[in-house]
Amino acid sequence: MKINLTEAARLLHEAQTVILTSHIRPDGDSVGSTLGLMHFLRGIGKDARVMIDDEIPRIFRVLPGIDRIERPAEGRRYAADLLVVCDVEMKRTGAVVPSVDAARVLNIDHHVTNDEAAEYLYLDPSRAATCEIMCELIRAMGGTISLDAATCLYTGIATDTGFFRFSNTTPHTMHTAAELIEIGVKPNVIAVAMEMKSYDEVMAQVRAIESLEMFCDGRVAAVFIDEARAREVKTTEGLLDSLRVIEGTQIVFFMKWLEPDTYRVSMRSKGVNVSRIAQTFDGGGHIRAAGCTLHAPFDEARRMILAAIGKELNA
Ligand code: 5GP
Ligand code: MN
Questions:
Q1: Which of 126, 131, 180, 298 places its Cα 20 to 30 Å from the Cα of 146?
Q2: Is 306 in the pocket of ligand 1 (CB under 6 A)?
């Protein structure tokens, strides 16, 4: 059921023990929004914990409270008054949603493709990041944002907007970021931390870019990362940013081996609706940034995604 911000604020006020979670393959907005809200809730005396069912990339070590993030233990049950699912729909939290017994479930998200399966859903697709929504939510609760919370929330806004360059960046986004900077967040510190890669990661990415292929008369640029290459390409962070600069491209994407006969696809566009492409494979996202998982051998997965992209481009 869709609810408004005041109702979401009330659900949080009414809960004492709160479990916060987000999607697997965590990014700045998922880690930032859960940790940011955790700091605020703990500040007002609630028993709040963050659970994410995946490894947390090293770049997020700059975020206060990062060591507090737990991974659900196999077979264990967790109880809470409220489970808050942030920046994702219910079904992409790995083992968290299935192992939590919560009296109520609140989903806070900004993805247009949200399946609206949650008991209570606060969805605002006009916001660039879930962290932007969290700032409004904290205000709606009559609270103030600490520096720890601000640092987490700023990070999610910065990463989901490509550091305020993508089309989802609005005056509201900038005002919110400005407020967080007034609280004391250092934009340069966050930017440096988010961009950091090891030498090996840079070299692996260079090799990945070397295998770049162009399709659809130069409107599509793609990198295919098979099993062997996936073992060295540890991070794809920033890979699509290097592709989108290519003149004439409308869609850029990579397809990367995840496990046998399973490939991750991540797409960026300059206007074509890539979330629609992702949805045909049970994925989702935003108009200009979306992803999905393909279950097929390499050649077939490659053919499937290229066909779907070609169809949407020519629609
Ligand atoms: P990325 O390409 O950075 O993994 O994801 C781009 C956007 O699409 C993000 O907002 C992300 O949450 C969303 N997204 C990526 N993969 C999936 C997926 O498999 N399902 C859904 N629903 N959204 C996805
Ligand atoms: Mn997000």
A1: 126
A2: no
Pocket flag, ligand 1, residue 26 (CB < 6 Å): no
Determine phi and psi for 53, rounding to 5 degrees: -90, 60
- How do residues 73-89 score in pLDDT, each as one tens digit? 999 999 999 999 999 99
Taking the CA atoms of 98, 102, 104 and 110 in sequence, report the sign of the dihedral they define.
Answer: negative
Report pLDDT for 176. 98
What angle in degrees, to the nearest 10, is found between the helix axes of 130-140 and 28-43? 20
95 residue type, one letter: A
Domains with residue ranges and CATH for the chain: 5-195 (3.90.1640.10), 199-313 (3.10.310.30)
**CA 50/CA 183 separation, integer angstroms:** 23
Distance CA 120, CA 5 (A): 11
Q: Is 85 exposed, middle or buried (0-12, 13-18, 19+ CB in 10 A)?
A: buried
CA–CA gap between residue 197 and residue 193 (Å, rounded): 9
94 SS3 class: coil
Closest ligand to Cα 263: 1
